[in-house]
Amino acid sequence: MADLADYEAFIGTIDKGSLTAAARASGRSLQSVSRSLALLEREMGVQLIRRTTRRSYPTTAGIAFHAKLKAALADIDLARAEAEQQSEAVAGSLRVGASVLFAPSYVVPVAAAFMQRWPNVSVTLVLKDEFSELMDDELDVAVRIGDLSASRLRTRMLGQLRRVVFAAPGYLATHGRPQSPEDLQRHNCVIRIPGPEGDMWPLTVKGQVERIFVRGSFQSNDAAACNEAVAAGIGIGLASFWQIRRLLDQGQIELILTDFEPPPVAIQAVWLPTPALPSRVRLFIDTLIARFSAERW
Description:
Elements: H1 4-16, H2 19-26, H3 30-44, E1 49-51, E2 56-58, H4 60-89, E3 92-98, H5 103-117, E4 121-127, E5 141-145, E6 154-161, E7 163-167, H6 169-175, E8 190-192, E9 200-205, E10 208-213, E11 218-220, H7 223-231, E12 237-240, H8 241-249, E13 254-256, E14 265-271, H9 279-292
Parallel strand pairs: 3-4, 3-5, 8-11
Antiparallel strand pairs: 1-2, 5-14, 6-14, 7-12, 7-13, 9-10
Protein name: LysR family transcriptional regulator
Domain HTH lysR-type: 1-59
Family: Belongs to the LysR transcriptional regulatory family.
């Protein structure tokens, strides 16, 4: 398939009057320019340039194609120049909020990629698990997990986080594998307190969300501690998939009740309403969207 270099070879041949002059101007070999023109003509199924030993003349089709293509390439050059100017103009400090467990693995890589692309921007990452006011922490943008339906903030959806029920293979071998949400009431469950669910787990039964009461001998206010407790065989846990993916990949846990998983949780970028969003904030949000779209949530 023809690429930008092939199109530039065609434009150069017309503008310079010969393949040799086009090759000299572009720093390519005569054979390379000739191959580019042959590829274009083969793909288009029409002769674009009539060649002689001294000169190269565009055909009628070549003249029409040259006019449109040269304008398109000029637009590409303009877009490149504008992007370079924007890169130079993006500068200043950026304060980003996120949760303690989520940020190191997911927000920090985004910040690193962003700072590499726009080196004149400095980033301060503020980590909290509670939803504090953006103005209180002077945040430009935050990554929030959970329901923001009553918020006055501007938002952009970044993804839907799958939630799963899981247990260690050893626990399941000893206590059996639950087959339905009701079976959880006969098992030891690891409970996060206060947590969004606590001891009432929202599982999906016949398309409807039902709150299943669970009990257990281990509780913690820290999600990572709860997940490690499950991996240690204490009981059954409930968590977002991204939190326990490493444990699953290592074989320390197994997913259970996959036909009854809770509804996913939204992850969003949020920022204060403002008439004009600074370019560094807008570009960071764009980077979040691009990076998170490839994640296996």
